[in-house]
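Loading example: each entry is read as two labelled lines plus one structure line.
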Amino acid sequence: MSELKQTRPKGTQDFVPPDSERRRQAEATFRHLAETYGYREIITPTFEHTAVFVKSSGETSDIVTKEMYSFKDRAERDLTLRPEGTPGVVRAVLENQARMPCRLYYVGPYFRYSRPQKGRYREFGQVGVEALGEASPLTDAEVIFLGDAFFRSLGIHDCTTQVNSIGCRECRPGHRDALRNYLLERKEQLCGDCRLRIDRNPLRVFDCKVEACRQAVEGAPTPRQHLCEACKRHFEQVLADLTQRSLPYEVNDRLVRGLDYYNRTTFEYISASLGAQDSLGGGGRYDYLVEEFGGPDTPAIGFALGLDRALLAAPPAAGPARRHLAFVVWLTESELGETEKLAAKLRADGIPAQVDYDARRVKAQFKSADAAQAACCIIIGPDELAKGVYSLKDLVSGEQHEVPFDAITAAVRKRFRD
RNA sequence: GUGAGUGUAGCUCAAUUGGUUAGAGUACCUGACUGUGGCUCAGGAUGUUGUGGGUUCAAUUCCCAUCACUCACCCCA
């Protein structure tokens, strides 16, 4: 293989047909589903002032400390390619003084500087929703249900839903202290990372996969044990509504999530068929974030789902379907004018039409049509023009018959329906 | 950022213990079929063996470096 002069940057992906079409399809499915629940699309910049992410995700979170694509522009502004969606949405909602409550969804590329592997890319596709100004536990359950519905509509069936509650301003400090004391007593057993976490964010120790840490944390005080009455009731209502909706779930006490802004409900969707990167998506409540951005006290909840991983977990597309495309084939140059006219008419009638202007022989044109996966060919030759017909050939069945000039659109439409 | 594995034709892969013109399938092109794709048959074209160095009479094969990809750690989508 001769060396290509230009290759794509590490961790980025090209989507060529039909992969690009499969991806679009999944996005369309999500848009439709989200709109079904009353969400409307929000489009925000792909980069923001770095402070937007640092303030919301947490100064010490891994995303902020080592995974951001940050740069200075020509005026020395500190900018960052968005590593996640929520902070930008919250910023935009406040900046545009959107009326609360409001339900927003988004679709787009996100960027994190981490080493690529299966299901993890430096540029990746994410879809998400944010329900701002809604405090009810029923909203939590509906949001969790919506994420699950998206995966199911893509044909993903091995997806399990995990939920947890990490409490609020009232009950978190109590738990934090209890957990910190518990961990300090067992500091010797913990890995280096976790020893640092004791001070910075003890909750994250629950996330650690090191076996020693897992054991040490076995009997640790869980967030759930320390929930205040209000949080406890909220969580119970979330679970009750999930049950009501017949959505199977697992309560996972170790599910704490990596972003600082979460409170109360957290959840995550896990797939068994993805390898190490098994999280299809996740989210949670972030009742304090809007206020921290300088806005009014506003409860909120949302999720982000990984498009790349969803497509990885979804069953492969069905067999090679023919495209709704008519290929117009010409015999000699004297039919070229007629060929262009027919193609124009078909397109005006809403039928995608293509012509191979370069291939001189009919055989080569048919090969092009086949390679393009066209559903049919329309042949224009001297004989046809003399008789006032086109020859219409179905490329799947191989059948061919003559169609009067003015009946061609209807005849092709019929082919597409079959 | 750390570790391991893999780089041979457009694609998927071969090539005995290092041994001289690096093969096969598929895709591609041509013809059988000068108005017809897919099937069949016959023929044809294709590689600086990722790159750079080293060992050797001889390197796709062994060694070093480098780059790329993959998987895992980490982190999470």
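The two ends of chain A are 43 Å apart (CA to CA).
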